[in-house]
Every structure is written in structure tokens, then in C-alpha cells.
Write a structure and sequence with these properties.
This protein is of the alpha+beta class. The chain has helices spanning about 35-55, 60-65, 105-110, 190-195, 200, 215-220, 250-255, and strands spanning about 1-10, 10-15, 25, 80, 85-90, 100, 125-130, 140, 150, 155-160, 175-185, 185, 210-215, 225-230, 235-240, 265-270, 290-295, 300-305.
């Protein structure tokens, strides 16, 4: 199942994509949730109902060209017609800061040459990223006059569907609702100035997310997904989630020891090598650059700088 937040008729609404590719708001299916955060918390109890209503929604009629009503939806099915809605970040306003894993691909260690030594890394590096509002697919990554080294980081995002506390590695994945793509945009000069990552990664617009949440049952092996980033069609990052140092289940299990991970928690699992900072010379983002992050089974997240 693919879960979206869309802007439709002046409202931000949780939605789901049918197998035909038609988009349905949850409200149109008779399922009343105010936003994606509520849907995440209630998803286990709503999953079967959503699936049944999507299966019986008549999307095939829409796909065959049934004329939409004036509001862009097909009568009795309420499948939103293409062009009548805009895809937003799946979780526009996360309930808490995003938890991030630092230097979680061996190939990324060589990028980290800014006075930090990760060659003896043994324990996972965790930090958080303030996200007042996630940036949308197609949204612009802002340029700030105090940032002179803007960088990209494609990452697999993990969304928990229920509270996790002191869970084992073996049961950890059962707490995952689904996965998305996150671009952990970073102001490298701000990181260096403050000698930590929080501020340089937390500026408004620095967390593009999307295009959707793909539920875990549709992903298969989360540690066998191709992950890549292109800047203006130049491949900058290319790897596979198999090369994570700390796996998704290891991170959930470790983080949940003594700390409750609430339903709706978002975990960004680190980026592979190839970021701008690690290039010789560095190739930081500039106005007009198109950044395209992709993960197999999820799709692409595209944003423009400036």
C-alpha cells in the first residue's frame, strides 16, 4: 500500500493509491483521519478496511476514461483525477525530531574528512534533525546567505507504526509501518562552525521527504534496495541498503532500549558515499540544481535548489 499526503481542493489530506494508480483521499473512502500522523497511529486497525475499500472503489472505471465530475473526482469512486491534486511530503509535520544515523555506510566514511575520525567507529552514531515541516516532492531547497556549502544525502526513511520499548532485534521490523525517501540536506560550513550536525541539518526546507510511504509488506527485503542520488542527471551516489553498517532492526532495537519510540517516529538510516563534501574538489549544490533521490521499491524524490 502506498500512503500519501496530498493537497486537494485547498486541503491537506491523507490519501492512498489504488493498484491502477488512481489516488483516493481517505475521506472519500469513508475513513476519517485528520492527517498522516493520525493515520500512522491508527493504521493497524484501519489497514484491512482501507484495502477492502480500495479493492471495491471502481478504479478500473476511472482508468478506462469515465468522465470526472467538476471537482476532479469520478462519481461513486472519488478517485482524484490527475492534475487536480499535488503530492506533499507524506508526513508534512513529524510528531518529533527525525532520528538520524550518522556514517552508516562504509563508503561514506571516506567522505567525512572534516576533522572527524570515524576509522575506529564501533558504536552507531545517533543524532536528531529538527523538521518543523518536511519539504515536499518538487519543493525548492532554500539557499541561505550564510550557507556556502550545501550538500545532499539520500537516505532510507523508516516510519514506526506502533510504540516500541525494549524490543529485540528479532521483533524490531514488526514495529515498522513503512518506508520513504529522505534527502538529509546539510549545510556543511554550519556543521563545521558548530562542530556538530544538528543545526546544519535542521534549517527550514532541509528535509525533503516522499513521495509516499510504502508499507513494509510491499518492500520485501529492506536490506536489498538500490539507493542513488543524481544532481542534474550526474550520478553522485549509488549503493544498496545491504551495505548499511547498522541495520534497520539493529537501530530500532538499540534505540528502544530504555527509550520509547512512539508510533510515528521517523528514522533516517544514513547515506552512502558520494556526497559533495567528499569530492575532490567538492561539488556543492548551487541555485537551479535538480537533486533526484531514488530508492528501489519506493520511487524518486526530486527537488530543485533555490
Amino acid at each position: 500500500m502506498r500512503l500519501y499526503t496530498i493537497e486537494y481542493k485547498g486541503q491537506e489530506l491523507p490519501a492512498v493509491m489504488g493498484q491502477s494508480g488512481a489516488m483516493y483521499t481517505l475521506e472519500s473512502l469513508g475513513i476519517h483521519v485528520k492527517d498522516m500522523n493520525e493515520l500512522i497511529v491508527r493504521f493497524d486497525s484501519l489497514r484491512e478496511e482501507i484495502g477492502q475499500k480500495i479493492d471495491g472503489a471502481g478504479a478500473a472505471d476511472f482508468a478506462q476514461g469515465v468522465a470526472p465530475e467538476a471537482d476532479g473526482c469520478v462519481s461513486n469512486t472519488v478517485a482524484c483525477a490527475p492534475g487536480t491534486y499535488r503530492i506533499l511530503a507524506p508526513v508534512p509535520v513529524p510528531m518529533q525530531d527525525v532520528i538520524c544515523l550518522g556514517v552508516n555506510y562504509m563508503s561514506h566514511m571516506s567522505d567525512m574528512t572534516q576533522g572527524l575520525n570515524f576509522t575506529k567507529k564501533q558504536d552507531t552514531i545517533y543524532f536528531s534533525k529538527r523538521v518543523n515541516r518536511a519539504n515536499d516532492p518538487g519543493g525548492r531547497i532554500p539557499l541561505y546567505d550564510f550557507v556556502d556549502s550545501l550538500d545532499y544525502e539520500v537516505e532510507l526513511g523508516v516510519i514506526l507504526g506502533r510504540d516500541a520499548f525494549c524490543v529485540s532485534r528479532e521483533e524490531a521490523l514488526s514495529y515498522v509501518l513503512g518506508y520513504t525517501i529522505i534527502n538529509d540536506v546539510s549545510a556543511r560550513n554550519v556543521q563545521r562552525r558548530h562542530q556538530q550536525w544538528y543545526r546544519g541539518k535542521s534549517l527550514d526546507g532541509y528535509t525533503p521527504m516522499g513521495p509516499c510511504i510504502v508499507t513494509a509488506d510491499e518492500i520485501g527485503d529492506v536490506h536489498d534496495l538500490d539507493i542513488s542520488c543524481f544532481v542534474n542527471d550526474e550520478k553522485r551516489q549509488s549503493s544498496n541498503t545491504a551495505y548499511m553498517i547498522t541495520t534497520v532492526e539493529e537501530a530500532i532495537a538499540e534505540l528502544s532500549q530504555g527509550m520509547t519510540l512512539k508510533a510515528g517516529t521517523i528514522i533516517a538510516t544514513g547515506t552512502p558515499g558520494g556526497v559533495a563534501m567528499g569530492m575532490d574538489p567538492p561539488k556543492f549544490l548551487k541555485k537551479g540544481d535538480v537533486v533526484r533521490c531514488g530508492i528501489g521499491g519506493i520511487g524518486e524524490l526530486v527537488n530543485v535548489v533555490g
